[in-house]
Design goal:
The protein has 15 helices and 13 strands. It is α/β, with parallel strands linked by helices. The chain folds into three domains: 121 residues, Probable tRNA modification gtpase trme, domain 1 (Gyrase A, domain 2, 2-Layer Sandwich), CATH 3.30.1360.120; 124 residues, tRNA modification GTPase MnmE domain 2 (Four Helix Bundle (Hemerythrin (Met), subunit A)), CATH 1.20.120.430; 164 residues, Rossmann fold (3-Layer(aba) Sandwich), CATH 3.40.50. The structure holds guanosine-5'-diphosphate. Guanosine-5'-diphosphate (GDP) binds next to helix 8.
Length: 459
């Protein structure tokens, strides 16, 4: 890997900044253990430099003969550490002041402050992990649901990498055979036939295609579903929002038209992340301010991933309800016939004839919530999702996979059009380059910096 890495010893607070049981200051690099020895005094006077990897000592952090805190110091020896370098971790009491004071002592002893994601970046540059595994680290940290956390952990363990490796090996073997056959005609190399090449390209293209298909589900699991709660004023949108989020967030009132602004909230329903927005009531209005809200809401409706369309079962269907049904006909929708605890006056048939998924609910009492949860899980596909299958987790990965697929399709086309094998070889090399970009084996510094830019300091 020709990418640059500074060889300074780095340090940072690796635990969350705030009060906690333990705070860890991580030091990594050539002098990590010597630097730790300058600030750490073990109770039995042992030096960390004399410890083997994976061992720990209890003692104190001391600066200018003053004891800052008690500490357990753990030593990791290269290459068996997170970064692949010598690492010392100082576990102190987790307070903002104490951890910062310990970090200051470490920096004064010769370490430099780590950049965001620099520990993981070093793990990547030292060949401990590939780029997809590094990206999985940030996904584990930011996971909002169990499924998202499991998917990220699988990626960290190499689920995606394994899938890409198989594709890469096929392409590299084919490219090597093709170029040997083209470049050394006098050698006794097995013939390359068009039929054979075409079959391999077809197979690889399909494999990448099925990988590309994992992206949308991956995004749903990771980022959640952009969900709009829609319905006429007083249908019970705010009450539903509060039921989903488990606390009073939107303003619930008896006066129609009170929820004017779009209120957003991220909630977890049956392990599905929903990015909810409760919108202004969708009724035809002359009020200018309310009209802006209504227009905004209609726009969001068209572009969201899921609509929870709320109907008031105690009232007859009116023009606003019928307009809503018309507005959402092309969007994935769950129709919620709300206020099921009251006497029904609504024409349910009209709704079930037009919307595939319909449930009855009382947002007020919570009756019917389980069925709503089941439907949401079904839509998200989290129940049938296998986290270890390896999925494309971000736009960078998707773009590289898509470029690789396009290059393979170009190679196929060159073959079908009867072009020379040279032209096929060029497209094939392009495909390999994109696959190497995906794993990070051949990637520009800008891309790598971009990946680690999103990390927190200390990771
Ligand atoms: P929004 O304008 O669509 O946001 O409607 P709100 O959530 O503000 O609800 C309007 C009124 O209907 C409030 O008085 C709620 O308490 C009431 N409401 C909402 N859901 C239910 C329900 O399931 N049953 C009953 N009985 N009342 C409800």
């Amino acid at each position: 890997m020709e990418l640059n890495m500074n060889n300074k010893t780095i340090a940072a607070i690796s635990t969350a900044q705030g009060e906690g049981g333990i705070g860890v200051i991580r030091i990594s690099g050539e002098n990590a253990i010597q630097i730790a020895d300058k600030v750490f005094k073990s109770v039995n006077n042992k030096k960390l430099c004399d410890l083997k990897g994976y061992s720990a000592a209890f003692g104190h952090i001391v600066k200018d003969e003053e004891t800052i805190d008690e500490c357990v110091a753990t030593v990791f020896r290269a290459p068996r550490s997170y970064t692949g370098e010598d690492v010392a971790e100082l576990s102190c009491h987790g307070g903002l002041f104490v951890t910062r004071e310990v970090l200051r002592a470490v920096l004064d002893s010769g370490a430099v402050s780590a950049q965001a994601g620099e520990f993981t970046k070093r793990a990547f540059l030292n060949g401990k992990i590939d780029l997809t595994e590094a990206e999985a680290v940030i996904d584990i940290i930011s996971a909002k649901s169990k499924t998202a956390a499991r998917a990220a952990l699988s990626a960290k363990k190499g689920a995606l990498w394994n899938r890409i490796e198989k594709i890469k090996n096929k392409l590299v073997t084919t490219a090597a055979h093709l170029s040997a056959w083209v470049d050394y005609p006098e050698e006794d190399i097995e013939d390359v036939t068009e039929v054979e090449l075409s079959a391999i390209f077809c197979e690889v293209s399909e494999e990448i295609n099925s990988l590309l298909k994992t992206y949308d589900k991956g995004q749903t699991i990771k980022e959640g579903i952009d969900t709009v709660i829609a319905g006429k004023p007083n249908a019970g949108k705010s009450t539903l929002m509060n039921l989903l989020s488990g606390h009073n967030r939107s303003i619930v009132t008896e006066i129609p038209g009170t929820t004017r602004d779009i209120v957003e909230e991220t909630v977890l329903v049956g392990d599905v992340v929903l990015r909810l927005s409760d919108t202004a009531g969708l009724r035809n209005t002359e009020d200018t301010v309310e009209k802006i809200g209504v227009d905004l809401a209609k726009n969001r409706l068209k572009n969201c991933g899921l609509v929870l369309a709320v109907f008031d079962s105690s009232k007859e269907l009116d023009e606003n309800d019928r307009q809503l049904i018309e507005d959402i006909k092309d969007v994935q929708t769950i129709a919620i016939i709300n206020k099921d605890d009251l006497d029904s006056n609504i024409d349910e048939q009209y709704i079930t004839d037009r919307i595939k998924r319909v449930i009855k609910l009382s947002a007020k009492t919570g009756e019917g919530f389980e069925q709503l949860e089941k439907m949401i899980v079904e839509i998200a596909g989290t129940d049938s999702f296998n986290p270890s299958e390896g999925i494309l987790a971000n736009e960078r990965q998707r773009q590289a996979a898509l470029n690789a697929k396009n290059s393979i399709d170009e190679a196929r086309e060159a073959l079908n059009m009867g072009m020379t094998f040279d032209a096929v070889e060029v497209a094939l090399e392009d495909a390999i380059a994109y696959i190497l970009e995906l794993t990070g084996e051949r990637v520009s510094e800008v891309v790598v910096d971009n990946v680690f830019h999103n990390f927190c300091v200390g990771k």
